[in-house]
């Protein structure tokens, strides 16, 4: 795949970039290692000043950064603004809490003094996706750099201007040269990077095949990875739920980022007693969404990021229909306009043996399942190879406790939309990946947890 900016709203090629050659990659690695040798000795206080400055730059120039995101991957401009603001939030969070999270922890043993010490590992490779091109990177950058590591970014090939803009933000914030660098390279170069002894670990957010490839390359070198992969998140609605709030949130949760989010609600599991009303309200919400230019403030749903994504999504829908699913609205790519547009779509009557029942739809397609009770709801929710997030709606405390306990996912949100928050650990189980980002758990992923025993 070429490294290029192609406007998904129009199909126009805006800018191309020449990938780094092997000699240039080697120079970047040399610079990163030299930077780490000095940077690891810099105090938390100094790192914090630079991270706070990065937050200021993000806040002051958020419109400029948001425009880059919208032009490169089609995110509605208002959502892109919110993404930049969230990046500033995570920078401030780790600037304020890193010293506390990584402070020595005393432990009483038979020693005169024993404690746990947290130390940076070195160069960390971040392989990041296009769907949240700033947020996914900054939720790595903030903890990794505050911990004293240095970062190399291999971003998705369709968001090179986002990648370069992030590197520039880190430089302008005052971080030493080489502490964070963007590598404009293809995926084929990742395994070579992992084989370099100076690269100590890697993190990836992306597809299952990409995660498996990185894990395999890292495993050969016995290097740690954190993987955040796909999801087919359930959205359970039980009889006692606030139905209006659930439907409104369901629409937002499915259409988030034009439907291109790992933690978007994708499988709506509703008890029979309220299923007709939920379906009617959801259909009304979906049909009222405004599809259009993502730069316009009134647009609810912009284009998908690439032509391949829309092709794959449409194929999935047709497979589902061929195997018995019913289309309530949408169901075909829009051909009346340029760009990669797919309408809000609802599929119902999906049998357990339908091939799409357990799949992830990476676009504005909702699957609606009717169930007799909470037992059936939990069974369907867990009948997937994924385990990233889950949302469940009930005002019954016993039902709430069962949902929290029995749903197989990295996070469960009751009466709310699944979202990431710097204060809470984020990640999945099963084929949704392993390891955690954000909170104290996220900054602990890429440090040496050193035991010290002194007599």
From TrEMBL:
Entry superkingdom: Bacteria
Matches recorded under InterPro entries: Ald_DH/histidinol_DH, Ald_DH_C, Ald_DH_N, Aldehyde_DH_dom, ALDH_GabD1-like, GABD/Sad-like
Molecular function per GO: aldehyde dehydrogenase [NAD(P)+] activity; succinate-semialdehyde dehydrogenase (NAD+) activity
Aldehyde dehydrogenase domain: residues covered: 3-452
Database matches in SUPFAM superfamilies: ALDH-like
Keyword Iron-sulfur included in the entry's annotation: no
Matches recorded under Gene3D superfamilies: Aldehyde Dehydrogenase, Chain A, domain 1, Aldehyde Dehydrogenase, Chain A, domain 2
Keyword annotations of the record: NADP, Oxidoreductase
Family: Belongs to the aldehyde dehydrogenase family.
Name of the featured protein: NADP-dependent succinic semialdehyde dehydrogenase
Organism: Brasilonema sennae CENA114
């Amino acid at each position: 795949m070429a490294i290029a900016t192609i406007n998904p709203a129009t199909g126009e090629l805006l800018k191309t970039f020449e990938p780094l050659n092997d000699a240039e990659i080697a120079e970047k690695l040399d610079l990163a290692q030299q930077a780490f040798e000095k940077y690891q000795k810099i105090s938390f206080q100094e790192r914090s000043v630079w991270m706070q400055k990065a937050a200021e730059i993000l806040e002051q120039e958020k419109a400029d950064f948001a425009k880059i995101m919208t032009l490169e991957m089609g995110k509605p401009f208002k959502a892109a603004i919110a993404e930049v603001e969230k990046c500033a939030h995570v920078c401030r969070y780790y600037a304020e809490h890193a010293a506390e999270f990584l402070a020595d922890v005393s432990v009483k043993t038979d020693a005169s003094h024993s404690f746990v010490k947290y130390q940076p590992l070195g160069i960390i490779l971040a392989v990041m996706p296009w769907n949240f091109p700033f947020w996914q990177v900054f939720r790595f950058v903030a903890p990794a750099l505050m911990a004293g590591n240095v970062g190399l970014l291999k971003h998705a090939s369709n968001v090179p201007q986002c990648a370069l803009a992030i590197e520039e933000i880190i430089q302008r914030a005052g971080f030493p040269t080489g502490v964070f660098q963007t590598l404009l390279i293809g995926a084929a170069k990742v395994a070579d990077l992992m084989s370099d002894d100076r690269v100590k670990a890697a993190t990836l957010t992306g597809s299952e095949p990409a995660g498996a490839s990185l894990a395999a390359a890292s495993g050969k070198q016995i290097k740690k990875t954190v993987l955040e992969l796909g999801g087919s998140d359930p959205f359970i609605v039980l009889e006692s739920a606030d139905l209006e709030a659930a439907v409104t949130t369901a629409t937002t949760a499915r259409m988030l980022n034009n439907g291109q989010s790992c933690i978007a609600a994708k499988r709506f599991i509703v008890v029979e007693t309220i299923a007709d009303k939920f379906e009617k309200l959801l259909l009304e919400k979906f049909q009222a969404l405004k599809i259009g230019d993502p730069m316009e403030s009134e647009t609810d749903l912009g284009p998908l990021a690439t032509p391949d994504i829309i092709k794959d999504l449409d194929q999935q829908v047709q497979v589902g229909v061929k195997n018995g699913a019913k289309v309530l609205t949408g169901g075909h790519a829009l051909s009346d306009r340029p760009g990669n547009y797919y309408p809000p779509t609802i599929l119902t009557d999906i049998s357990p043996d339908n091939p799409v029942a357990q799949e992830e739809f990476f676009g504005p397609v909702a699957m609606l399942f009717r169930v007799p009770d909470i037992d059936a709801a939990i069974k369907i929710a867990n009948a997937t190879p994924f385990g990233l997030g889950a949302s469940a709606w009930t005002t019954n405390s016993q039902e709430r406790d069962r949902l929290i306990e029995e749903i197989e996912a990295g996070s469960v949100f009751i009466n709310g939309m699944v979202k990431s928050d710097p204060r809470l650990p984020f990640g999945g189980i099963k084929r949704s990946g392993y390891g955690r980002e954000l909170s104290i758990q996220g900054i602990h992923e890429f440090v040496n947890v050193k035991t010290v025993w002194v007599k």
